[in-house]
Amino acid sequence: PYTTLFRSTMEWIKYYAAFYNSEAEAEEYFDEAMARIDEMKEKVKGAPKPKVGWGIVAMGKVYVENAGAKSAQMVRDAGAEYIFDDIGVGSDGVTSISVEELYERLSKADIFINRGMPKYGPDKKSITDQAPSLAELDCFKEDRVWQITDNFWSTYHNIDEKYIDLAAMFHPELYKDHEFKHFRLMPEIAK
């Protein structure tokens, strides 16, 4: 059955390992990764929950990750409150909303994660050129707009790293020396 847990996506590593007679190595790798996710969840358990939105502005339209999407679950697991928890409940994927609704919801958010890759929109200007009002939001003015890296969607073998990146983004006080691998802060204007 379909699941919204990214953890289950990593199960594929065990399936492919069978073709290479590497089941034991895959099982060990998987178990270690799941243990790192469990440790992260325990670490952020009592921390304050920042409000987080995850979406994209593309060609003037806004798409946000559904409440049932794997990404939204990762946000919750990493110790944050997902601001679109009432949109697309029980559904993976994205839903289109208006720029006005995005503005209204992000006005109460601490962090915005842009699901677009840097090769398609390398900076906050690529967003605010399409939706100028977003530049007025605190998360845009105070450098709390993050973006996935270009390889984010093609790297399912390291889900644990993505979870830990999110936890470090939401709780920097708990991950002081963390180096991000799958997310980056969006610059105002790309160099």
Taking all Cα atoms into account, the compactness measure Rg is 17 Å
Q: Percent range for helical residues?
A: 25-40%
Structural class: alpha/beta
Terminal Cα separation, in Å?
45 Å
The low-pLDDT segments are: none
Shape: globular
Please trace the helix and strand order, writing H or E for each element.
HHHEEHEEHEHHEHE
Number of helices in the DSSP assignment: 8
Average pLDDT over all residues: 94
Number of strands: 7
Provide the β-strand percentage band.
Answer: 15-25%
Largest sheet report: 7 strands, mixed
What does this protein look like?
36% of the residues lie in helices and 16% in strands. The mean pLDDT is 94. α2 (12-18) runs antiparallel to α3 (23-44). It is globular, with a radius of gyration of 17 Å. It is of the alpha/beta class and 191 residues long.
How does the SSE layout of this entry go?
Blueprint: H1 6-9, H2 12-18, H3 23-44, E1 51-58, E2 61-65, H4 70-77, E3 81-82, E4 94-97, H5 99-106, E5 111-114, H6 125-128, H7 138-141, E6 145-148, H8 159-170, E7 183-185
Parallel strand pairs: 1-3, 1-5, 5-6
Antiparallel strand pairs: 1-2, 2-4, 6-7
Identify the notable features of this structure and list them briefly.
8 helices; seven-stranded mixed beta sheet; single chain; globular; alpha/beta; 191 residues
